[in-house]
Amino acid sequence: MTSHRVLYFCLFVLLFNLACKKHTHDRQISGHTILLDTLNVPQKDALQDSIIERYRSSLEEDMNRVLVYSEHIMEKGTPEGRLNNFVADLVLEVGEEIYQAQDGGSIDFCLLNYGGLRVPLPKGEITYSRVYELLPFENEMVVITLSGQKTFELFQYLAESSAGMPISGVKLIISNNYPQTIVIKGQEFDITKTYKVLTSDYLAGGGDSMNFFFQPINYELLGMRVRDAIIHFMKEKHAEGETIQADLDQRIEVVNQ
């Protein structure tokens, strides 16, 4: 081995050993416990608290205002529930009012998610705060145009779901986890056609594993939140002197054979 090669070899061994050698350093970590409960609350800043109180009082006043009166309690259920039907129907109605399609087409049906409805609506007064509790999310209304095949996948998803998804504009009969009968606005489902589905941007993005919404033919934001559609609907009903109510109409029916 030449002297140059020996030198290079020694340098290699030296660098290899240095790279593999573990360097340990003693580290000291200290800390202390901060109790956060009703007995250990930092003293309030009087000035800050007075400023916050002004906004708090105003907000509470707004949130406690009555939007509308309900004739009965509305709860979600499976395969359908009064709350499911009420929310899906009103979102479809408001969506149809504000939707302006470039192709002149109309919305075929509405699909929302069961888990998105957080609390029931009581009988009697429905306040702003109750609607925010019902839908605490900032989800936007979206119209998705799907192929017939993707639309069938949507109904197959509903047939296999363990929870009744809020849906409007559809009559669905499920047999052995299969969509046996699909009727959309009075017309039998046709897999060769395209369909426009009103939903939320959360579901349109594949939320709740609704992958059939991926790669749609068209995606159109309506410029209104789902929660705002509910508030808009309730305010209109109240202004007209009407109350709200919802029925179970077997729009989703399970007939396992």
Q: Provide mean pLDDT, rounded.
A: 87
Order of helices and strands: HHEHEEHEHEEEEEHEHE
In terms of structural class, how would the helical and strand content be classed? alpha+beta
Q: What's the gyration radius in Å?
A: 29 Å
Total helical elements: 7
Q: Measure the end-to-end span.
A: 86 Å
Strand content: 15-25%
Describe the oligomeric state of these chains in a short phrase: single chain
Helical residue percent band: 25-40%
Biggest pleated sheet? 5 strands, mixed
Low-confidence runs:
1-16
The rough form would be described as globular
Strand order within the widest beta sheet: 5-2-9-4-10
Count of strand segments = 11
Explain what you see:
- This protein is of the alpha+beta class and 257 residues long.
- The chain has seven helices and eleven strands.
- It has helices at 3-20, 46-63, 82-98, 128-134, 148-160, 201-204, 226-239; strands at 66-70, 109-111, 124-127, 140-146, 167-168, 170-175, 178-184, 187-188, 195-200, 218-225, 252-254.
- The strands form three sheets. Strands 5-2-9-4-10 form a five-stranded mixed sheet. It has a four-stranded mixed sheet with strand order 8-7-6-11, with helices on one face.
- Strand 7 and strand 8 form a beta hairpin.
- Helix 3 (82-98) crosses helix 7.
- The protein is globular.
- The model is unreliable at 1-16 (pLDDT under 50).
Concise overview:
The chain is an alpha+beta fold. The chain has seven helices and eleven strands. The strands form three sheets. A five-stranded mixed beta sheet has the order 5-2-9-4-10. Strands 8-7-6-11 form a four-stranded mixed beta sheet, covered by helices on one side. A two-stranded antiparallel ribbon has the order 1-3.
